[in-house]
Each structure stands twice: as structure tokens, then as C-alpha cells.
Amino acid sequence: MPEPGTGRGDQLLTVDGVRVAIGGGRTEAVHGVSFEVRRGEAVGIVGESGSGKTLVCRSVLGVLAPGCAVTAGTIDFAGTSLVGLPRRAWEQLRGTRISAVFQDPASYLNPSQTVGHQLAEQLRVKVGKPRREARTAAVALFDAMGLHEPERVYHQYPHELSGGMLQRVVLAIAVSGEPELLVADEATTALDVTIQAEVLELLGRLRRERGLAVLAVSHDLAVIAELCDRVLVFYAGELVETGPTAEVLDSPRHPYTEALLRVASVGDWDRRTPDVIDGEPPPVGAEIRGCRFADRCDFAAPQCRSGPVPLTEQAPDRAVRCVRASEIALSGAGAIGAGAAV
Amino acid sequence: MTNTDLADTDLADTDLADTELTDDGRATTGRAATGVAATGVGDTGTGTVAVPQTELLRVEGLGLSFPRPGGGRRVRVLDDVDLSVRAGELVGVIGETGSGKTTLARAIAGLGAPDAGRVLLDGVDISRLRGRAQRDFRRSGALQFVFQDPLRALDPDLTIGASIAEGLAITGTGTRASRAEQVSDALRRVGLDPAVADRLPAQISGGQRQRASIARAVIGRPRLLLCDEPVSALDASNRNHILRLLDGLRRQLEVGIVLISHDLSSLAGIADRVVVLYRGRVVEDGPIADVFSRPQHPYTALLIASAPSVRRQDRLDPASLRPAAGADPGADSDSDGAARRSAGGCVFAHRCRFATHACAETPPRRAVAGRPAGEWAAACHHVETWRDQVTGSTAILKESSA
Ligand SMILES: Nc1ncnc2c1ncn2[C@@H]1O[C@H](COP(=O)(O)OP(=O)(O)OP(=O)(O)O)[C@@H](O)[C@H]1O
Ligand SMILES: Nc1ncnc2c1ncn2[C@@H]1O[C@H](COP(=O)(O)OP(=O)(O)O)[C@@H](O)[C@H]1O
Ligand code: SF4
Ligand code: SF4
Ligand SMILES: [Mg+2]
Ligand SMILES: [Mg+2]
């Protein structure tokens, strides 16, 4: 259940003006993104495929693919600057203070070792638990992740487990070092909907019980709505709107956010037709003078294309990148309760 | 992963030979192309459309099992599955990973050996065609597949246009120029710029690739389209684009569509009926609006309650439909279906909050009270009573059925 952040000024992660280039530095795919994640807070990034969500996550984790690099901006994690952090320093951080789960859990596990062994190793190496203790702790952690018969699971190999069970195993490994921040990039996207609901509940519980902060990514606003206190809407490598989840869903200020709401899962079973966002996002690296969304925007006017559109703070925690934000009327998702069903 | 092993290259390669297509196809295409991606097509709404009554596909009592890797009793993957699709109708099949959706689609296409039941297309059993009869049937192109991964239907080394035209070329239909014209028509029909024909699959986006694979499937004017999770790999907007495209195609081409999905919300707004599969059995099937607003089976209700939503009022807490913590230590909600399936009994019992001793017997599929046989049915011993045991917001369960 989204809980209010523990107040301003308690920043855990501060991303400031980050630009990411791909293709060996020739093409800029993320154009100066700034946001913060506070201790214990869940922040969600939502946006279409290719909008730069994963590049931002990978920048935060220091695991950008070869040929991709942060070319400007700073990333601060609890006082440590992460851009250009030496490998050794990362070793101290990743898996213990920052960890991650991705869409395909199987590819982050060693297929030839039992999942229990892999978790116990993590507990031994990263947390420094003696061998026997690590084993007991691993079983307990599997149990805490909602895996039934954790003793049996301990001795199983990745291929013997379903996708949902694997994601719980990876989550167990991710939280074994008691991290302060978990980055979850499409962590539930590949799961069956009933299992997705269970894993989202598990993430909610980990937040409550461990004070874990979460940076979650999904292309489906509905998933972010279930999990996150605040939402960051990405479009074509830019942050176009941000605010508390309930506010953004209730009264979006950016036309693209409204469009995402229309295409999100709404649980509205007698909806007439699935809505779409017409057109395509601009290609990565496209030189665009004004608003990057203008070609697809119903509200586009000449002033939208005349120059760069700044992200404008509207209220504390609430900002939007649209020159016409104050004069257009957009519709929200309807009444939104503050809490998910967790 | 299983899907890749099951690749039916022969199916993907054999199709598309309707000699009457050129004239016929071009005429309809001209009319249709404008509508597909535009708002007009989908707006008809499912409830209001008169679905043609001719039955196209009828699956009866289909059963299929696989040998167990280590020997021993075979693993039953489909059990007594019934399904019917009329021309122009869009039927959703929903089920979780391993529930048998792909196996069902493959069995309908004559790939896989059912050990019970029949698959009738226009009254002819196509599940056991062999040799020449099978080849002729495939050549007829009456049945086409659309896969989750469009790259399975599109050769990475061939241009999009060549892939789409492949089937026509193989059977030597028409001249080169008329084939190119048909490809352009097919591309327009799926809302793509005909210029895309000259690109390679790697040079277009995932959503565009899926459109291209649909163009490939419909160019030969099939009667039945089997779509196996065609939108699972796409983002929300692209997903809806493809769904609307399919909805438009079944109206324009009168093609019957089986749309397989693990995501209920993909079916809302476009499917006429839905078949809910759990561990190889149909646990509920009926008109989609009825099933969604008043699910009769506890598993259907769990699916609906679990779907994430940007609107949460009146939503049922999925936890109120799961077994109470510690109630059944053997229940493993996401362990591999077929492997752990116990013999006999309700397939859903291991995850069902409402299971009783009665559930050790397989529940028969029974028509919902007040509905004619074949319209809406569920397989649960406690259809009438399980709802009363749910606490919390039960709006989705209490809504009266029409
Ligand atoms: N390793 C890479 N090399 C080249 N281009 C890349 C690389 N990684 C990402 N890109 C490009 O950068 C852009 C942003 O990619 P990113 O993966 O961050 O998108 P995303 O928002 O996570 O999308 P999705 O929802 O599809 O995961 C895309 O155009 C993508 O093609
Ligand atoms: N060729 C095969 N040999 C053995 N088992 C199979 C084969 N194909 C599928 N299965 C099994 O049948 C069950 C249903 O699989 P499938 O039809 O692919 O499900 P779905 O498409 O619903 O995910 C699974 O348990 C799967 O492992
Ligand atoms: S700036 Fe103009 S084009 Fe861009 S989102 Fe706002 S109204 Fe639309
Ligand atoms: S038959 Fe029994 S176990 Fe099966 S769904 Fe109904 S109540 Fe649950
Ligand atoms: Mg991504
Ligand atoms: Mg499948």
C-alpha cells in the first residue's frame, strides 16, 4: 500500500539533470532527467516502450550497456555520487544498499546451481553470514517471500520453478543485503495477473516491514498505481509530468499522461473499445525544437513548437512540461482511493 | 521457452492460396484500409453487433496428453475442452502460463495428437487429417496463426513485403505485380505504410512487426485466425492498437478469431465471449460482459480481482479469494500446473478458498441458472454459495446479471 513519503528532505536517491547517450555517445536518448526518491518511498516510472525508463534505471545501478553512458548530470545516493563511481565502490553498494529485479528473473540466476545455494552465497559474501547460518537465513527468507515449502525450494534449480516463484527467489536475493533502495524494472510484467498481484503485495509488504524504498518501472500506469506513492511520466527521454500518484491519476496535467490513462488497464469490463495513442514517439535522438509530444497532441498550438518546453513546478512535488497546462482541461481516471488492495 | 520448442515452422510456411483473392481482396481492402487504425472501426462496440450465426469452429471434448519425461503416466494437458467460434466472432481464451492455451491452439490447427474429442471446421474434423488431406487443408489457408513473437512469422533476412508475399509466391498465385499490390493492400489493412514492405523486421518497432505478421496471416483471407498471446510482448498503447486491429478485421473479413491471452483486460471491449482455462479444463465460458460483471467460478473472480487498475473503487481484494494463510500448506499458487496436478477433483481446488470435500470430485460444467445451455456455464460445485463467503467489497460479485 502506498504510504506517504517520510517527508521532504529525507532524500535517498537524487537524480539531477541526467543525460544518457547511446550508440557510443552519438545519440542522446535521455535528455536531462531529474527526480528524487526519499527513504521508504515508492516512485514509479511510466511511459511507452523506448521512452528511456530502463536507461535511467541502469544509470542508477551503474550497469549501462557498452556504448551507453551518462554524459551529464549527477546521481547521488545517500551522499555517494554514483556517476563514474569506481568498480570497487560499486561492489560495496550493489546488492547491499541498492539492488534490483528485472523482467526476466531466470537470466539473473545461475542455471546450474540450486536457488538456495545462490541465496546462501549472497548472504555469505555480501552480508558475511557464516555458512550454516546463511543456509538457515536463506530458508527463512524464502518463507518470507511467500514461497511454500521453502526447504524444498532451497534445493531446486531455476528451471524447476515457475516465473512467479523465480521472481520471488530473485527478490529474496535482492533484499538479502537489507538494501535501502530496490530498483524494479518491469518486475511483474511477464507474470500471470494473479501472480503479479501477489508479487505487488509482496513488494508492498517489504516496504512496510523493511522501510525499503522502491524505484519501479512499468509501461502500464495501472501497475504503478498499485504500488507507488509518486509517479514520473516519461516521454521520448524526458520527464513530462510528476506528482503524487493519486493526484496524477485524478487530474493529469499533461496530455500524454491523460493518453496513458486511457490506455492503461482500467478494470472497466464493459468498456467499449480499447483506446490507443495515435502516432508514434519520435525516433531516439530526433532534433525537436519544441514539445516532443506535439505531433501526437490534440492540444498542440504554435507556441508548443517555438522553443524548448521547461518542466514547471506547479506545487510541491507536482510538475508538468506543457506550455498549455493551465489552460487545457484533461480528464482523470475517476475517483481513486489512496491505497491499493494490499 | 516452451513456445519456441513448439515452433511449427510448417504451419507458418504453409498458407495463403486463395486464387479469387486478387479482385475480391483488393476491393474489400480499399474499403477497409481507411478504417482499421482509425477510430471508426472499433466503435461499434461488442454488445450491439449482430454476430453472424453460422458456426465456423466447434471443438468438442478435446483431450490431449504428453508423455512424462521420465516415463510413467502421461501428463494430461487438455481435458474435455469445448469451444465454438462463429464467422466474424472474436472468442477470448484466458488462462495462466501452462494452462494449455498454446496446446489448444496447436491442436485446433492439427498440430499435436488429441486423445479425445473432435475439432470441426465447417463441420469437417480437421484434427486428424493426415498426408495429402492435411497438406491440402493447409494450402487452403483457411486457418492462420498469429504468435506472441512476430519474429516467428517473419524471416529476419527477408523484407517485410517478401515475408508477407511468401505464401502467395510459394503457390504461384498471381503475377509479381499483383502480389506486390496484394502486399500493399494487406499492409494498409493493418494500418501500416506500404513503404514498410522494403524494410527488414529489425528495422521496425515491435508493434509494427506484430501488424506485419497479422498482414501475413490475413493476406490469404483465412476463415479462422488463431492468435496466441499476440499482445503480451507489447506496451499498453501498442497492445490496444493490435486489439482494435483484430476487432476491425473480424468485422471486415468475417474471419472468426480465437484470441489467447493471459491478461483479462486485453479482452475487455473486443471479445464477444470468453473461455476461462485452468490447468487444461474450461472452468467458465460465456458472454464477456456477463463473465466479467458476475463471474461464476472462483478462479474467474480471482483473475478479475487481481487485475491492476487505475480505478480502484469497489474493487475486491484478491486476498479475499485466496485460501486463508496456512489453510492449505500444499497450495502453491504458481507451481507448474500439469506437473503437480492431482488425479481427479476440481482442478482449482489447491488454490480455492471455498473448496470442500465435495470438490474431490470433478465438478461438471453446468449452465448458469436461467441461461440456455451453451450460453454461459461454469464448473464449480459451489457456484450458488461461494460468493456468500467473500468478505469486503463485493461489488463485482453482486451486480445483478441481465
Ligand atoms: N544498449 C543500447 N544500445 C543502443 N540503444 C539502446 C540501448 N539501450 C536502449 N537503447 C535505446 O534507447 C532508447 C530508450 O531505451 P530504454 O530501454 O530505456 O526504453 P524503455 O523505456 O525501458 O522501453 P521498454 O518499455 O521497451 O523497456 C530506445 O530507443 C532504445 O532503443
Ligand atoms: N511438447 C510438449 N511436451 C511435453 N509437455 C508439453 C509440451 N507442450 C506443452 N507441454 C506442457 O503442457 C502444458 C500446457 O502448455 P501450453 O499449452 O504451452 O500452456 P500455455 O500456452 O497456456 O502457457 C504445460 O505444462 C507444458 O509444459
Ligand atoms: S506543450 Fe503543447 S503540444 Fe506539448 S503537450 Fe502541451 S499542449 Fe501538447
Ligand atoms: S468446485 Fe470446489 S474447489 Fe473447485 S472452484 Fe468450486 S468450490 Fe472451488
Ligand atoms: Mg525497459
Ligand atoms: Mg502459450
UniProtKB/TrEMBL annotation, chain A:
Residues 13-261 form the ABC transporter domain. Keywords: ATP-binding, Cell inner membrane, Cell membrane, Membrane, Nucleotide-binding, Translocase, Transport. Its main location: membrane. One of its GO terms (molecular function) is ATP hydrolysis activity. The keyword Cell division does not apply. It is a peripheral membrane protein. InterPro entries: AAA+_ATPase (IPR003593), ABC_Ni/Peptide_Import (IPR050388), ABC_transporter-like_ATP-bd (IPR003439), ABC_transporter-like_CS (IPR017871), Oligopep_ABC_C (IPR013563), P-loop_NTPase (IPR027417). Pfam families: ABC_tran, oligo_HPY. It is found in: Cell membrane. GO terms for cellular component: plasma membrane. GO terms for biological process: peptide transport. Belongs to the ABC transporter superfamily. This is Peptide ABC transporter ATP-binding protein.
TrEMBL record, chain B:
Residues 57-304 form the ABC transporter domain. Gene3D superfamilies: P-loop containing nucleotide triphosphate hydrolases. The keyword Nucleotide-binding applies. GO terms for molecular function: ATP binding; ATP hydrolysis activity. GO terms for biological process: peptide transport; transmembrane transport. SUPFAM superfamilies: P-loop containing nucleoside triphosphate hydrolases. Keywords: ATP-binding, Nucleotide-binding, Transport. Belongs to the ABC transporter superfamily. This is Peptide ABC transporter ATP-binding protein.
